[in-house]
Amino acid sequence: MAQGETTIVTRQRKKYMTNKYEPVIGLEIHVELNTKNKMFCRCSADYFGKEPNTHTCPVCLGLPGALPYTNKAAIEACIKIGLALNCFTPSLSRFERKNYFYPDLPKGYQISQYRWPLCVNGYLVLDNGQKIRINRAHQEEDTAKLMHRFGSQKSKVKSQNGTQIDFNRSGVPLVEIVTEPDFHNVEAVRDYAKKLQQLFRYLGVSNADMERGDMRLEANVSVRPEGSTDLPNYRVELKNINSFRFMVAAIEYEIKRQITALEKGEKISQETRGWDAEQKSTYLQRSKEEAHDYRYFPEPDLPELRIEESRVKSLESSLPELPWIKSKRFEEEYKLTSAQAKILTETKELADYFEQTVEHGKKHGVEAVQIANYIINKKVNIEETLPTQIIEEIKNKKVGIIDNEEELTKLAERAIKDNPKSVADYKAGKIPALQAITGGVMRLSSGKADVAKLRPILEKLLKQ
Ligand code: ADP
Ligand code: MG
Ligand code: ZN
């Protein structure tokens, strides 16, 4: 066999006979906005826990002849989300009708956006440096809520068994944010989803509570042979995910299920699967209808949206400092480790609290790093502790922080020994693995190690 042929065979083997697969994942995130009113009527959008069907009117009940009108605050919130995600806001945007039949949809269609979304072509950079492309962020309305009471033993009144519909949620503003299929591992998906939740809270556009359904995740999953760059010609959409933990479990399960099927030579069909938290597995919900089945067409009862550049500019300047930018600033301005900065910017409230304390500390010669260590190690409850109290305690040296190099080195060496996997990951270039080793030192030192001083020591030891 000639040299060239060998190469081809090897390459083909690599491509087709490999047992290694790479997941391809795209995310669709829905977030319910906390505007005062619903999307297309003046009913209160604050429906959670309210008496069923008390927040309704002819518009959100879908009664014939009722005319919708747009909620400006919701539109602005959607544009803000888009801007924070580096999207472009076209000057023309439109609503369309997405037609399908389901009892939670009284009009027989959902007012959504398809061809003319408010925000397009954005991206978000993850902790690992990967840039996730965002296809669009568009505005739509929520559906009513179905409450199934089949077989309920508690209900003595027979007529109460069955499915009931609460229209309080019908027409509540929703924003859907769709990524390109850019994720290849669950850690990246988790990081992205958490960043979005954090963003919604920083922007103040939603509580983004997953359990309450303020924020809903749908993951599209497929797998391909490692090395291939083709987009698989199918995708499985995962629904019913109401926590980050379940999202990770569902995606991991699905990746395994698909690889097993491919290895058996089976073809995977395009479908929607739900996550069964008890069985810890996904199950078939329905085979996927194609997008054109929805027969999207422009909503004739709503005017098109003309969005002036000046309005976009003014919304952009109204954005708060975004969490990932704040976190970078904390690292530079206060000489914090990325792990510390990340913790302290987790919520805007905590970040503000930290900065207030730093401001106060300046007058007393207390360093920002000391304050960061204190707040993190002591898990300070910011509702109950005044910044002045923290300064007082640090000054009085009531806290036994370990910042001595020799002691820290000993602790670091032990943590390195205890965490061979993280060490290997770190050496393979996975920088976030350093956090796990840092966590090890924290445990060994009962939270007393000075993280800022520890980091260079760990980095030095890990280079050896
Ligand atoms: P639709 O309009 O039917 O919802 P999209 O093309 O908008 O379809 O895709 C929806 C989601 O599915 C997006 O997040 C996208 O990134 C993701 N996706 C598309 N193709 C794949 C694939 N082969 N594997 C995984 N995810 C995919
Ligand atoms: Mg979709
Ligand atoms: Zn209404």
Task: Tell me what the structure shows.
This protein is α+β, with helices and mostly antiparallel strands and 464 residues long. Helices cover 38% and strands 19% of the residues. It folds into 3 domains: 3-317, no CATH class; 323-395, no CATH class; 405-462, Orthogonal Bundle (Arc Repressor Mutant, subunit A). The protein has 14 helices and 15 strands. The strands form 4 sheets. Strands 5-6-9-1-10-11-12-13 form an 8-stranded mixed sheet, with helices on one face. Strand 11, helix 4 (244-263) and strand 12 (271-276) form a beta-alpha-beta unit. Helix 3 (186-203) runs antiparallel to helix 4 and helix 11 (405-418) crosses helix 14. It is globular. Bound molecules: adenosine-5'-diphosphate, magnesium ion and zinc ion (ZN).
First CA to last CA: what distance? Answer: 45 Å
Largest sheet: 8 strands, mixed
Count, helices: 14
- Run of helices and strands: HEHEEEEEEEEHEEHEEEEHHHHHHHHHH
Question: How is the quaternary structure best described?
Answer: single chain
In percent, how helical is the residue content? 25-40%
Shape: globular
- Per DSSP, what share of the residues sits in E-state strands of 2 or more residues? 15-25%
Instruction: Output mean pLDDT.
Output: 90
Ligand inventory reads: adenosine-5'-diphosphate, magnesium ion, zinc ion
Structural class: alpha+beta
The number of E-state strands comes to: 15
Work out the radius of gyration: 26 Å
Compute the number of structural domains.
3
Give me the side-by-side strand order of the main sheet.
5-6-9-1-10-11-12-13
**Unreliable stretches, pLDDT < 50, 5 or more residues?**
1-17
